[in-house]
Amino acid sequence: MEIRGPRALPARREDIELRTGDGLRLVGELALPADADPVATLVTLHPLPTAGGFMDSHILRKAAARLPALADLAVLRFNTRGTSSPRGTSDGEFDGGGAERLDVAAAMDLVRERGLPRPWLVGWSFGTELALKYGREHDIEGVILLSPPLHRATPEEVAAWAHDHRHVVVLVPELDDYLRPPEAAARFAAIPDAKVIAVAGGRHLWVGESQTRRVLDEIVAAVNPAALPLAREWPAG
HEC string of 210-229? Predict the structure, then answer.
């Protein structure tokens, strides 16, 4: 059967709670390969909660639904402070990207506690701002930035990644509402080793199965390229 839409492939899925340094409880889910240890870990950071972003925003939900089975990846999703989803509501209130620093730290605490391998931060829109601002504080292999608006991350915070060994992969939709490929190339030029990928026909919300597949393909290309090409049908093979 073709893999598309919200279909969830086999995985070990666990509802989790994160505890922040300021005492908040954040709700989330950890998805692991069904019959194997993960080879790498995606710590996902969702779009702007005041504009409808949450841990179930579709690209992140589909990453958790597909990539444990297709690419042997662990996928951690959670609601940042004050954010609600069917999983529940995280404590606290939205802080515009300030106190969310503690939310990112709480997710990385869980990664360390569980011994999850080779963590990457995968941010989408607002989540890219958190990855850029705070990712360098943690033991990660790199960041993958989907539709970065660069509204909150300062030029200095972006440029700081030039002096870092971690990977920076940037997916920029051709028709993005906030930052399109030519401007993105200029804004990320401060990081000489950044991989800026312009996606023809792409839009900020990555709507449609073809855009979903392109995003997931690029994530796996960065994190576990041996799993490519990703199967389009399940059972695979």
Answer: HHHHHHHHHHHHHHCHHHCC
CA-based R_g, the chain, Å: 16
Is residue 14 within 8 Å of 30, Cβ to Cβ? yes
Number of H helices, E strands in the chain: 6, 10
Confidence of residue 22 (pLDDT cuts 50, 70, 90): very high
What confidence score (pLDDT) does residue 236 get? 76
Q: Residue 124's beta-bridge partner residues?
A: 146
Question: 38, 98 in Cβ contact below 8 A?
Answer: no
- Tell me: the pLDDT tens digits for 159-209? 999 989 999 999 999 999 999 999 999 999 999 999 999 999 999 999 999
When pLDDT is averaged across residues 147-170 and rounded to a whole number, the result is 96
Query: Letter for the amino acid at 139?
Result: D
Looking at the DSSP assignment, which residues form a beta bridge with residue 28? 16, 78
Query: What is the C-alpha to C-alpha distance for residues 184 and 191, in angstroms, rounded to an integer?
Result: 11
- For residues 135 and 150, give the distance between their C-alpha atoms in angstroms, rounded to a whole number: 15
